[in-house]
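Q: Hi! First time doing this. I have a protein sequence and I read that you can turn it into a structure. Is that right? Here it is:
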Amino acid sequence: MNIESNFAKAAEFIETAASKGAQLAVLPEYHLTSWLPEEPGFFDLCSQWEKYLAKYQALAKAYHICIVPGTILERHQEAEREEEKLVNVAYFIDNNGDILGRYQKKNLCTHDPHDIIQTPLGPVGLLICWDLAFPEAFRELIARGAKIVIIPTFSFCYTQIIEPFMGLGTLTDCSPYGLAQNPRSEALFLESTLTSRAWENTCAIVFANAGGPVRDSRSSSTTAAKPNPYAGLSRVTVPFLGALGCETKDSGEEGMSIVDLDMQILDEAEKLYKVREDIASEGWHYIYRHNALKGDREKEKL
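A: Yes, that's right. Below is the predicted 3D structure, encoded as structure tokens:
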């Protein structure tokens, strides 16, 4: 819960990425505070969200790099209910330090439409963590034109972590039954789903997940011998190639990958699979919430 130390580490990663020519830096969900709502002082940390959002804006402007600063937990007072709440928000900050859009975590939290953000990198969609499990969220984003979907995440693999969130119940990364079947069950879910979402939507997915401390391979202590509970596996996935990001895609440890994304791959995938073309066609036979977009477009033409 050392928010200033966590920010300093994130800023160091961003500076390094910018120095290597990166145009976009993406951080994990909860990267500033983790998720420890029972800890004293946690809500006070979440009250500082505007301060750190402004710091990320300053970094983006200073290094001329777009930033999605993972998610930032925001503490708000609800006047009508006279109670406090936390909201889990991802922002897209452009390379001039301006906020182009925000996304509040929907699955488990809210159910508003998924909007895209027009950015210097093209049309972008933001999702958070468990949104990955809902293909409809991706369909809605690509129906609106998203080419890149960015997903900050806080996910575990090997231990049963229960995440109470704003009084809306619990999310268990894996059940005891699932872990007994396959200790890497959650890793398998992430690896396979991230790949399939890129293929089935002819889009690029930028997935930034929390990683654990780098372990000293020379250590023989019991603690070091235990599996790292953090899923990590941060990667970019695209059609034809699958997972990119050699430094992090197969690791649960903290780190950074610099990935070159060739947007032509997405165009070639769409030429082959025609996913977006089919969704936009008159006879599209699957019913989703974003089907209403067709009606909206027709009204705009009139």
